[in-house]
Amino acid sequence: MTKKTNTGPLKGIRILDLSRILAGPCCTQILGDLGADVIKVERPIEGDDTRKWGPPYIKDLNGNDTTESAYYLSANRNKRSLTVDISFPEGQELIRKLVGKSDVLIENYKVGGLKKYGLDFSKLNKDFPSLIYCSISGFGQTGPKSHRPGYDFMIQAMGGIMSVTGEPEGSPMKVGVGIADVMCGMYAAVSILAAIRHREQGGKGQHIDLALLDSQVAWLINSGLNYLTSRQDQHRLGNAHPNVVPYQVFQTSDSFFVLAIGNNKQFKKFCEFADASELVNDTRFLTNKDRVHNRDVLAELINDLTKRFSTSHWLVGLEKLHVPCGPVNTIKNVFDDPQIQHREMEIHMPHQLSGKGEVSLIGSPIKMSETPVSYRNAPPTLGQHTDEILEEILGMDEKERRGLVMKKVV
To answer: Could you tell me the residue range of the domain that residue 275 belongs to?
Structure first.
């Protein structure tokens, strides 16, 4: 399924994307899905580092690896690729000209990294006061650690999430995907939309300063507030929940499943289905507070019950009773799920390097009745749209474009 028509609410908004890796590209992919014209500015020859972060890569007609990795494909849909070497004065001038035709610039250079090219916020803001300038960095534009580079794994560690992830007796564990980057990208997208709204109401452009560490701390959510309220550190609980019990993975006779009981009524239904009604009136488990205090005892009792029957027995039976539960799916299971297929969370888009003529991508979760997302451009090859952008937006003729190529500016 491929939708070509741009019906998105951000149609007419142009974003100059000087970001790379994951946080910035996640942000601009969201905005691109919503209709923005995203121009991905990349280094000639090298491009975004993630293009080479494989395997796996797209396969060509002969089954050989191409230059496009799955990692790169994951965050670069609905963009046009322009190669520019900003170390050249001509490259800097090209960016400035494009800034004058754009609504938003997003970058994730090290703090102060664009100043030497005259492309920092303070410089551009003087000439383009309506520009929304979004900077993403490891630690933000200010503070004692602002000069340090930041990477997802390191930020997960420093931001506390690894201290509460993993088995109680095991080592700290990161989340299995680059969640610190992804969440920072989402906060960036929200911030940019708010800044666009502010400008539409008569306001000026502004500088958005987003830090991976800040956004990581923000999504500690209840675990963070548990500490701020009690001043007691949370320790690793494996798959258990710090505030709700029973709410974890349990073993069955053939595998595992998740039981996510959120109230006393659900707990009663589970106990009755498990033929363990005596647990309902056990003073150790009367309320969620009681169950939290006695989590280890209750978890052991429930595990003894769930191991008697198959995963299917528990999922089918408990679903009928509206007791929250679910399978522990592999990623293959996820994309084979009829619900995921119905919601079009796997999409296909034409791609010139693919031997199949198309690539599979993860669809947008955003479902809007009046302004649905539109899938217009597959993740672009390096510099795929350079000529198109220079001609369409800057009005450069073929001779001018050839001159830039000869100088290795683009």
So the answer is: 247-251+256-327
The H or E element containing residue 340 is: helix 338-342
pTM attached to this predicted model: 0.94
- 153, exposed or middle or buried, with CB in 10 Å at 0-12, 13-18, 19+? middle
Catalytic residue among 17, 85, 181, 214: 181
Based on the fold, state whether residues 88 and 163 are members of the same structural domain: yes
pLDDT tens column, 88-130 = 999 999 999 999 999 999 999 999 999 999 999 999 999 999 9
Tell me: the pLDDT tens digits for 143-197?
Answer: 999 999 999 999 999 999 999 999 999 999 999 999 999 999 999 999 999 999 9
- In the chain, how many domains are there? 2
Domain final residue, candidates 327, 362, 386: 327
Same domain (yes/no): 97, 200: yes
CA distance linking residue 402 with residue 410, whole number of Å: 9
- CATH number where 24 lies: 3.40.50.10540
What pairing do the DSSP bridges indicate for beta strands 37-42 and 14-18? parallel
The amino acid at 324 = P
Active site residue 181: yes
Residue where one domain finishes, among candidates 303, 327, 351: 327
